[in-house]
Design brief:
Protein name: rRNA-processing protein UTP23
Number of helices: 8
Family: Belongs to the UTP23/FCF1 family. UTP23 subfamily.
Helix content: 40-55%
Oligomer: single chain
GO cellular component, one term: small-subunit processome
Organism: Pygoscelis adeliae (Adelie penguin)
Radius of gyration: 43 Å
Shape: elongated
InterPro entries: Fcf1/UTP23, PIN-like_dom_sf, UTP23_sensor
Number of strands: 3
Amino acid sequence: RCVLKELESLGKALYGAKLIAQRFQVRNCSHHKDPVSGSTCLLSMIEEGNPHHFFIATQDQDLANKVKKKAGVPLLFIIQNTMVLDKPSPKSLAFVQKLQTNELVPEHQKQSIVQLKEKEGLAKQEGEKRRKRKRAGGPNPLSCLKKKKKKTQEGQEPSAEKKKRRKRKRNRVKAEAVQSVRKNEEE
């Protein structure tokens, strides 16, 4: 409501911006009786960790810098007719990192883990770094190949040494003959 009041007070120069702002859902702020500037109102709405998960869309650099100092508030701005979501501020990244580490293990458990590691001698020492051990590999695959036979001497004939093998012909029995043999066996 404070932003709409400010846009009304600025006159016809920002009439289009006022029409656009009126299309969106209007959130109630704590200063509806005595309106303050738009930037002050927006900053008051995102206090205490942005409980309603608001995005701030602004072209005002002063307001953008103040929003970047608060963790967990996404910032939108316009560049050449395109809405751009600004990258998370360092404050937001640090806040998320802190949350992730705190959610995994409570603080009292972290302290007890450190004490147990020191007691067992598992605590990392800054001077020592473990080297990755090389594991024994298998044999060289090229050394496992079968050895080639030596060529025969030129004076000898290779055909004389080798015996010719005859291929065995396979007689196939017709299916009818097999059935007749089975019938005879059953009787």
